[in-house]
Design goal:
The chain contains three helices and 16 strands. A 16-stranded antiparallel beta barrel has the order 1-2-3-4-5-6-7-8-9-10-11-12-13-14-15-16. The protein starts with a helix and ends with a strand. With 375 residues, the chain is mainly β.
Length: 375
């Protein structure tokens, strides 16, 4: 409760200050966004312990992901900056057209945001290095593996957190000496709501297996010395309530850490995420990986690897629960045609193995070619 009151008090204080200052023109939104599209093929697939599972899958695919951004800000006479941002999906998925939407207030005190966005933990996060905005071994926007059909986790990720774009309040500190921290609080996992939800103006507390009352903290450090750039940090998100919890599973927790060093065009880095007490079976998940990237002129190439250790998961066709390991090896490359426009490619290998005799296995190669266009 104390954390909620602190966030609310800060927001009210900012509102009072803003009420006594006015910008001449208010906030005018500008439009931007990005387009990502790719074609991929898979070959050498082996569903060895999942007979028949992959019989109905194609060996090629076309994909695209488009977002349009509306954002704007103004600085008031007292120095306070007020802004808003809306990210709209170019395609509708699960009837959720709006991805993120929030308002922010910034100044010498840092920045305060309120709305639908990731928790602090996920916002101050670095992935395993990749040469591509589209592909990679860690949380790629596009992947072509069919491992998700065989079992669980089509790809590995180290920045997922607990509550995605649920409505929350987030605070970012100013940067001092290369150090910055952030904190956020999320009442529950609902988003895109205005007034009542299922008739409750203050939200219900009986949603199956929902992680609620989530508090997240994160810190990052960046420093450049003698041409060497260092980035390191990490964070945690703690849920204090698991709703409808007949198995008395402990509240979910998530931790991450990362580090990267860049010098003379080379970047090497590692990242990890440990998630505890997921689902109704108190499942734990640990993902970690490393990679290296080299960039020169308009080119970049990288090689990355991630390993996912998944406990008590249920895969496709309700197979499970079982324990599994998933290794992903990804070779990525990109060429920048112009500022914000690039052609990107990937060759990747996915090795998914159940540690239980009855569980599924999957191995397969894939290749993809795509483009990123910022606008």
């Amino acid at each position: 409760m104390k954390k909620t009151l602190l966030g609310s008090t800060a927001l009210v204080a900012v509102g009072i200050v803003a009420g006594h200052a006015a910008a001449d023109d208010g906030v005018k939104l500008e439009i931007g966004g990005r387009y990502m599209g790719a074609a991929g093929v898979v070959f050498g697939e082996d569903f060895s312990a999942s007979a028949g599972v992959g019989d109905n899958t194609r060996n090629y695919v076309f994909k695209q992901d488009v977002e349009v951004y509306f954002s704007g800000e103004t600085t008031l006479d007292n120095g306070l900056t007020v802004g808003a941002a809306v990210q709209m999906e170019g395609q509708t998925e699960d009837d959720d057209q709006i991805d993120k939407v929030y308002v922010y207030f910034s100044g010498g005190f840092g920045e305060l945001r309120f709305g639908d966005m990731e928790e602090a933990y996920a916002q101050l996060c670095y992935l395993v290095p990749s040469a591509s905005e589209l592909f990679g071994a860690d949380s790629p926007n596009f992947n072509f593996s069919n491992a998700g059909i065989a079992g669980y986790a089509a790809t590995n990720g180290t920045c997922y957190g607990l509550d995605d774009n649920s409505t929350k309040v987030v605070y970012f500190s100013p940067t001092f000496g290369g150090f910055q921290f952030a904190a956020s609080f999320t009442p529950d996992n609902s988003e895109d709501t205005r007034n009542t939800l299922a008739g409750a103006g203050t939200r219900l507390k009986n949603d199956d297996d929902q992680n609620s009352e989530n508090f997240s903290v994160a810190a990052t450090f960046q420093h450049e010395f003698n041409g060497v750039n260092l980035v390191a940090g990490g964070g945690t998100t703690q849920s204090f309530l698991k709703e409808v919890n007949p198995n008395n599973v402990d509240p979910a927790r998530s931790y991450n850490a990362y580090a990267q060093i860049t010098y003379a065009g080379f970047t090497v880095g590692a990242a990890s995420e440990w998630r505890q007490n997921f689902g109704t079976t108190s499942a734990d998940q640990w993902v970690y990986g490393a990679g290296a990237k080299y960039a020169w002129d308009d080119w970049a190439v990288a090689f990355g690897w991630t390993h996912g250790d998944y406990e008590k998961v249920v895969g496709a066709n309700d197979v499970g629960p079982f324990n599994a390991d998933h290794d992903i090896f990804s070779l990525t490359a990109s060429y920048e045609l112009a500022e914000g426009i690039s052609v990107e490619g990937v060759i990747e290998y996915s090795d998914y193995r159940s540690r239980d005799a009855a569980g599924p296995d999957y191995q397969g190669f894939a290749a993809g070619l795509g483009t990123y266009i910022g606008f």
